[in-house]
Amino acid sequence: MAKILTLHGVNLNMFGKRDPKQYGTATLAQIDEQLGALGKELGVEVECYQTNIEGEMCARIHQAFTEKVDAVVINAGAWTHYSIAIRDALAILTVPIVEVHMSNVHAREPFRHVSVFAEVVKGQICGFGVDSYLLGLRAAASAIQ
Ligand code: DQA
């Protein structure tokens, strides 16, 4: 069975408590549960991982390379806008990467309009709340060869 790794970055463990106008009220555990349920429907294994430590995120991406996961869905939170370290780690992967955001980053502050991952991901989905993740998982599953 194909395996899709979903990566959640810095501060995303606070979903459900932080800024509900931007991010809704679903907790990260509830999002992961929905991803798992959709994975079953799509016939793919879904693993979810969250960290607030940049180096740990890089190490998990390296592990994804070694493990040969089939695709990655990533919401890196604020790291999206400046972490060259995570971008370089993602660039090591040869499998499809889908970048997702709960909020519409383009309708927010200018610093959120830039993703340093843009050139190394297959595509981006933002602005649909939890559905951004679910759409991202569908996109990743269909991008797997
Ligand atoms: C976010 C958008 C980022 O700009 C922000 O720093 C986040 C969450 C989103 O899911 O909308 O932490 O990635």
Automatic annotation (TrEMBL):
Transmembrane segments: none annotated. The active site is at 23 (proton acceptor), 101 (proton donor). InterPro entries: DHquinase_II, DHquinase_II_sf. It is an enzyme of class 4 (lyase). It catalyses: 3-dehydroquinate = 3-dehydroshikimate + H2O. Pathway: Metabolic intermediate biosynthesis; chorismate biosynthesis; chorismate from D-erythrose 4-phosphate and phosphoenolpyruvate: step 3/7. CDD domains: DHQase_II. The record marks 18 as: Transition state stabilizer. Keywords: Amino-acid biosynthesis, Aromatic amino acid biosynthesis, Lyase. Substrate binds at residues 75, 81, 88, 102-103, 112. GO terms for biological process: amino acid biosynthetic process; aromatic amino acid family biosynthetic process; chorismate biosynthetic process; quinate catabolic process. GO terms for molecular function: 3-dehydroquinate dehydratase activity. Its EC number is 4.2.1.10. It comes from the Bacteria. Catalyzes a trans-dehydration via an enolate intermediate. Belongs to the type-II 3-dehydroquinase family. Homododecamer. This is 3-dehydroquinate dehydratase. The gene is aroQ.
